[in-house]
Amino acid sequence: xxxxxxxxxxxxxxxxxxxxxxxxxxxxxxxxxxxxxxxxxxxxxxxxxxxxxxxxxxxxxxxxxxxxxxxxxxxxxxxxxxxxxxxxxxxxxxxxxxxxxxxxxxxxxxxxxxxxxxxxxxxxxxxxxxxxxxxxxxxxxxxxxxxxxxxxxxxxxxxxxxxxxxxxxxxxxxxxxxxxxxxxxxxxxxxxxxxxxxxxxxxxxxxxxxxxxxxxxxxxxxxxxxxxxxxxxxxxxxxxxxxxxxxxxxxxxxxxxxxxxxxxxxxxxxxxxxxxxxxxxxxxxxxxxxxxxxxxxxxxxxxxxx
Length: 306
Hints:
By secondary structure, the protein is α/β, with parallel strands linked by helices. The chain has two domains: 31-187, serine acetyltransferase, domain 1 (Orthogonal Bundle); 207-292, UDP N-Acetylglucosamine Acyltransferase, domain 1, CATH 2.160.10.10. The chain has nine helices and 14 strands. A five-stranded parallel sheet has the order 1-4-7-10-13. A five-stranded parallel sheet has the order 3-6-9-12-14. It has a four-stranded parallel sheet with strand order 2-5-8-11, with no helix packed on it. α6 packs antiparallel against α8. It is globular and about 70 Å long. The mean pLDDT is 92.
């Protein structure tokens, strides 16, 4: 092995890759502050799980005082980590005007972190309704513990509920990192901007897509492969894509079966059932039952017609 050749190749490419290209500079924030850490964001979600499901993801503590101590320790770490990561994420703020000092950025980040912590009781309430919905909708679920430990929908919904609150608080970048962590692990893609009510269930889940401006009511169930997506996009006079409502509204008590695609700003009325493999681009009234045509047996024999 020619070590000199290896070292020369390494040095040459290190020198080339160390140069910032114009494209690279244009894609980076103007500041030189640290960027958000994906590993720290993972830790933030883990801490939220420890706080909301303390008996499942931490050692079980039947004594309430000891339980409060462990939750308090997790809460303190959460506040510090969240403040720091929000501050790093604020570099990507598109509507922030003027330069701000480090103290101003961290002050804003701290306020957002505390607002998030104030929302934890409501996030916990919503997640336990999701656990109940999954348990009620799946006869294969023998107990609540299996739903919390094992179901990809609960992993995804924990990430989503955390990310959605941060999205509401206008935290840049961090919410999308959180939902994409769940997406990469479970195959369920929920944009943090989507609005999802209580008692939400996703059975199996792989391939589910829920777009940014989707609105979902209470007691809604989706099966694997469902897409709640956009049908088309609108542009301004300069050809830039507009971020306008473009995804479906799903009212209460709706069930959507596997591989259905519901596209555009349409409304699925309450208490409706959408069958599998449906392509739906128009609104349907409450109590609808939308099914695909039945398969037709053409009676081919010996390969005829194939």
